[in-house]
Amino acid sequence: MEGKTVSIVNKTTTLCWHMQSYHKAKYLQWATANNFPSMLPDDTKHHQEEAALSTQPSLDNHLIPRDQLLHYSESAFREVAIQWLIETDQPINVLQNPMFMQMINVASHANNNVKIPNHKQT
Length: 122
Prior knowledge:
Low-confidence stretches: none
Radius of gyration: 34 Å
Largest sheet: none
Helix content: 40-55%
Mean pLDDT: 81
């Protein structure tokens, strides 16, 4: 290496590129003899591309099953409200109560199902 300016760098990626450029045959011979996968930049890039093609990532483990969404309609709400009035023996004017209306308004903005507290939680 006479006449060449050599700079010493403490980076493994630079060392890997050096091995690939100047000592590839010797390195591959050693890797094969020692049953070691090649870590040269071109080989690792090739292995990463192969892995990306062979395994399709899946979202299944990240998804949470949700109940079937109910679509809102005035008639469906009216039916459920009347059924609730009858089954809980509520007066008809309870549907006009400001707190009841506020509760329905808050629940209508929920992203998921509304969790209604039971008698032990109130």
